[in-house]
Structure formats: C-alpha cells, structure tokens
Design a protein that fits this description.
- The protein is α+β, with helices and mostly antiparallel strands and about 160 residues long.
- Helices cover about 20% and strands about 35% of the residues.
- The protein folds into two domains: about 70 residues; about 70 residues, no CATH class.
- It contains three helices and nine strands; from the N terminus they run H-E-H-E-E-E-E-H-E-E-E-E.
- The protein has a nine-stranded antiparallel sheet, with helices on both faces.
- The longest helix is centred in the N-terminal third of the chain and has 16 residues.
C-alpha cells in the first residue's frame, strides 16, 4: 500500500512539474490577498506560523503556489494541487545552505555520476510521507536559461537515495 501511495504521489508531482510556466497564470499577486481564504487556511495548517506574502494560480486552475515567511525568517513556498475538487498541499520548499544538508545526503550526492558542489539547495518536505527531497543545482553560465535541479536526493527514515 505504501508503494502504491508513493507511485500516486510521484505521478501527481510529475503532473505538477509539467504545468505551464509561471507566465501563463490566470491569477497572481504580490500580496497575501491574492490567496483565497480557504487556501490560506490549508497553507496555515501545513506550515504553522507562516506569514503569507503572495500566491499564484496556474493557467489550468489546478495548481496554486503560495509564498511566505516563517517565524524564524525562512522564506518558504507551499505547492498545492487540486484533485477531485479538493486542494491539497504537495510540498513545502525552502532554500538552505549545502552545509546544513544531512551528511548521508551529501555523501549520496558525492557518489552520483558527474558529482558537483551545488550552488543552490532546495529542501522540499513531501507532505504525503514526510520525506525530504533535496534539489541540487550546479553552477551555471550567467547566460544559460534557468532550468530544474541537476540532482535530487530523497531522505526518508534515515536513508538517502538519488532519484532518477
């Protein structure tokens, strides 16, 4: 059953990853007022203490990205998806320093083919199972277009694994 939930979760994540770029949004805003009250309540339950600063709905109307600040000053992004008419939080992300990543995750990244020292690390808490996914970005040429992470390492129940 856990494996089936994991497959469903990653399928939902893959669908979310294939969404239109942020420039194709139907609703966006640079303020907390851009986040409907019902979604703000779901976000507040998932990230207690968050001060919502903005939100953005994708063009399809089934994904919402909320940004905010936690009481400790961390800036976070809460990614939500609408499935079967209900909104659910998929993940909560924040940028962190490479030095604060668990040692086993750093070791797993170092053992990956074409290993590199990341210049950016996004820690993504997966709400479904509580695992952490570390999105690692390699240095880029200043003129290179932005793109996704170069390596992802999942940390769950004391075990690290590189994701395909």
């Amino acid at each position: 059953m856990t494996q089936a939930r994991y497959v469903v979760y990653w399928l939902a994540f893959a669908i979310a990853a294939c969404s239109p770029p942020a420039t194709e949004t139907t609703q966006s805003g640079d303020s907390a007022e851009s986040v409907p009250a019902d979604l703000a309540a779901i976000v507040a339950a998932s990230a207690p203490g968050i001060a919502i600063t903005s939100g953005e709905l994708n063009a399809s109307g089934n994904q919402f990205e909320v940004t905010g600040t936690m009481p400790n000053g961390d800036e976070v992004e809460v990614d939500m998806v609408q499935m079967n008419g209900a909104w659910a939080v998929l993940e909560i992300q924040r940028d962190i320093p490479w030095s604060s990543v668990p040692a086993q995750v750093r070791e797993t990244a170092a053992a990956a083919p074409d290993a590199f020292e990341p210049v950016r690390v996004i820690e993504s808490t997966q709400v479904e199972d509580g695992s952490l996914v570390y999105e690692l970005f390699r240095p880029r040429d200043a003129n290179a277009p932005p793109r996704g992470p170069d390596l992802e390492v999942r940390w769950h129940e004391g075990r690290a694994e590189a994701l395909p």
